[in-house]
């Protein structure tokens, strides 16, 4: 028993010692989650968490953020999620940014619904959270959303598909196939709904026929936005719905990467290349459009989007309210997120030179 | 060398089985110090420590089960898929049937048990190698996740989120700290002291065994208690509303319970016996099939729990849940000193191994390393950790590590003529 | 003979491992064309010496010099010693079971033509080599399909494929039955006539006596003496004295049996092979064991002794077809190992490394492994009790180890066997079945193990000893059952037992009254 007493004394002493050695991080004064103060230092840390480097757009965005934020005098911490553990990576990256005391965290979500906890943690640490390109759902702690108007993207794609087919073949009925994006990306549905708002009347009138009869977003989904998934689905469609001399007149593709996969599949089957839409203005697709294969793409100039985001960050730094232009379209399940939406531009062979005139990489391709 | 050995024996409980853990604890301390300095003290801030635990609790829970699977001589590749499958089932049922969240957790555990029984049946009673069964399970339950969830992301209710993102509540008087966390720390301190004293008493009862000198026991207790106190204050002193994460408490409870089970019960020892030499275990009266079945089943139950904790932390179940978790869990187990061929390893080793990986990737992220480089460094670290151990064993550097060496004639396997056990005690 | 220079001379070889001097100033002189036996207890340094010779421990890792064929050699690895014609055949055979005899003989040494393996030439040469060692099987037979005896011959044929001049055999007959052993010894004599020199490491004194021209005795890493058998003859006592460093008045300890009533009886035990449905490994075997009795089981390799024992021990082998076991007059069921242990049976396997012990365990956990319930209190293992039990056995069985915390892998064969015995004594069995309890164990440890067996019998337990060494059975057992082709062919009382009578019963399947 005596030894036990001695031990207890030792424990007590050690406890006291340690107590004095490291203090509490709690501020007795601020009991409620800190409101973002009006403005912050010019050289504050700005965190940018982007998805895995699966598309060149994300890589470009990352570079633009790094340079743009630095030019504006901020410290930039730009992170991409790992290829195989995307969501978990992004979660811990956001946590790390919070730890490092980032004032604004810009998130291009890998999975729109799985970041609520991190967004709350960021908010409570006093950071402002901006959803970039993809809306983060199920959290009331998201501050802003900045993106291209994705419903409009879908509308433009649907219209381009109809226009393209009419150019090739003046009269219907036209046979088409539909592809939509990854079901875990909130935007996939918006694109698809936009496109269907144009296509559905044509389908109802019988002018346009979906060859495989697969018209729901679940049937047309492309898991993970992966090209190989789109390619294998197209292969399957060609082998089932387009036997013999039958061939589709057009394919609605939500982005360029998938569009090229679809074209590859059709070429592999020895069929004529149909009218295929796209999005993102990827280099390979612009070449393809100029070569007359892919029909259209969407120019959502990443430069403009990043520039707009940085403008918002600057406004926050100065303590101003950032400019927004939409306060009722984007409800993430908890609240309507104040958004700034940019207008997308449809690009076909005709207007490519004009659309990319300012683009150092794409411009030369159109000449 | 003897100095190191003494230190190890007296500070870390002695015995021959934890030599690698000893090295890993040093590595862990070194990594923590390195990043603490490199990040200007960001690593050990309360907020970061909380995020660290929340971000790794589910992997460590997996590694507890994985340790037992690997010790028994198997492997489980399906844990990530099982976790994702359970997550989507629980999320979907809670969302569509309005199931209260405690019942949701129960349902998840039952789903895990059912999956475990399925895999255990093939492994234990049909004799299909666990590698194959769980490879099949990996595909099966990943597909199941997508089939049920339509690759959708399904949110879970607020109450459920507590197990992954919640903290101990703020109760009691304002002490400047989170009171439940302080209480927890106090309980652990007392437990540490009691355990030390009891271990000492047991050691004294063994005639012929020399207990460590009293002052060393004192130092040992002081070090451990100081550590617990430090960690407690870190967790108790974070922002108001935050404290020690619930998921950390679940992990702690599981680690203590399973550690006790594997070390101090017959059932636990059977797992080591089966992994060390299954035929010898069988001829000693161990029910081989039952052990294999239970180990596989237990793994899936823990995987289900890990899946739910992750879903809770992510506030939704998504199609990418559980991707490559099995690899993280397996890496933690091997870094923690388990043998690839089974029969060796400890729960605490697996936890420390997991912690090393967690601190490593957290530290790298804090200094702004991209996820690509983090993966490269983690891969090299895993290889280096295991290679160093193998090298030391071959060189006979630490004679103590020699005891970890497996003789090469396992079962009727091919004998290695070059292998000769040290003749230290036979020549006398 | 003295005029010819020696084929091999190893001069004051010293080899150290961290913390241990395995060899110190060891000398070995081997003449051309002789059979040179090296004997010594396990751990005396025999294998280490041979590893120094064959380059497993390369030049530079030991002190001293090796003069071979008149020149000093410095082998850097096994390949370089093999090029010089020194081939070592290890106790544990280094054959690939799934490959054919030919493939094994030429493994790593394939005859090539234009870069391709010339299988025709290989098969032709394999036949020649096989006939040299008296092996008449098809060279395409897979090694796993032939017996241990023949596998040993394949190993020797493999040595000849490498143009051997000095053949080293490490315990060549340890795993062989009497017939195969005799065949192997004849073969070695044949080699001697052809001028091939052999070094043989062996425990079996009768074999050494029968075949060796010279004997070198090692003890604790030192050379004790070299006996020239042709000049002075081999004196068994002298060898034993040299090996153990003390007088062994008898190979078996004094024992006065106190035999009680029959308490264990097996009737018409019938078991078939686990895979082949046709083959019966036990055909209606019956036997009895009395309290305090040591019962021997003699039989050739494959006669079904181990199969009988293991099938009784919780059906651990084969498929049970029929038969009944009685204990204390009541029929009992032994459907699982746990049940068998519950009924007081213990089985000490013939292969302690493969199935007797978990070599990752330390001594204390091994000792209690078969009956953890005995040290469990309220579902928790009592570590102090475990230590206490292990410590008790360490003392009573004189297990040589500094502590019961040591891993069993560090122990010598004899001490490992003692741990296995302790493990089963810990279960408080009424009947112990010991399968080849002294295989691979040196003379001194054998004596101690015999003592333990007798002590167990003295406590009124029944002990069944299965052994391939007839002198051991005759010296130890009160009654000896003979087994042939799965049948019990007879029982012989100790006073009537001699090798000839037993051998006759072991080779005839005619059933003689068994009680």
TrEMBL record, chain A:
Signal peptide stretch: 1-23
Keyword terms: Signal
All residue ranges annotated as the Periplasmic binding protein domain in the record: 46-320
Compartments, as annotated in UniProt: Cell envelope
CC per GO annotation: outer membrane-bounded periplasmic space
Coiled coil: none
InterPro entries: Bact_Solute-Bind_Prot2, Peripla_BP_I, SBP_2_dom
GO MF term list: carbohydrate binding
Protein name listed in UniProt: Sugar-binding protein
Taxonomic source organism: Kineosporia babensis
UniProtKB/TrEMBL annotation, chain B:
A cellular component annotation (GO) from this entry: plasma membrane
Cell compartment(s), UniProt: Cell membrane
Entry-linked Pfam families: BPD_transp_2
UniProt cross-references to CDD domains, sorted A to Z: TM_PBP1_transp_AraH_like
Keywords carried by this UniProt record: Cell inner membrane, Cell membrane, Membrane, Sugar transport, Transmembrane, Transmembrane helix, Transport
Membrane-spanning intervals of the chain: 21-37, 49-70, 77-95, 101-118, 123-141, 177-194, 214-236, 242-261, 291-311
Superkingdom to which the source organism belongs: Bacteria
Gene Ontology MF: a single term: transmembrane transporter activity
Annotated region (Disordered), positions in chain: 409-428
Record's bilayer topology term: Multi-pass membrane protein
Major localisation: membrane
Function: Part of the binding-protein-dependent transport system for D-xylose. Probably responsible for the translocation of the substrate across the membrane.
PANTHER family: ABC TRANSPORTER PERMEASE PROTEIN YPHD-RELATED-RELATED, XYLOSE TRANSPORT SYSTEM PERMEASE PROTEIN XYLH
NCBIfam families listed in its UniProt record: GguB
Record protein name field: Xylose transport system permease protein XylH
Source organism: Kineosporia babensis
Automatic annotation (TrEMBL), chain C:
Record carries keyword ATP-binding: yes
UniProt cross-references to SMART domains, sorted A to Z: AAA
Taxonomy, superkingdom: Bacteria
Name this polypeptide is given: Sugar ABC transporter ATP-binding protein
Gene Ontology cellular-component terms listed: plasma membrane
UniProt keyword annotation of Cell inner membrane present: no
Predominant location: membrane
Membrane topology recorded in Swiss-Prot or TrEMBL: Peripheral membrane protein
Domain ABC transporter: 8-245, 266-510
Species lineage: Bacteria, Bacillati, Actinomycetota, Actinomycetes, Kineosporiales
A Pfam family it matches: ABC_tran
Originating species: Kineosporia babensis
Database matches in InterPro entries: AAA+_ATPase, ABC_carbohydrate_import_ATPase, ABC_transporter-like_ATP-bd, ABC_transporter-like_CS, L-arabinose_ABC_transporter, P-loop_NTPase
Residue ranges, annotated region (Disordered): 496-515
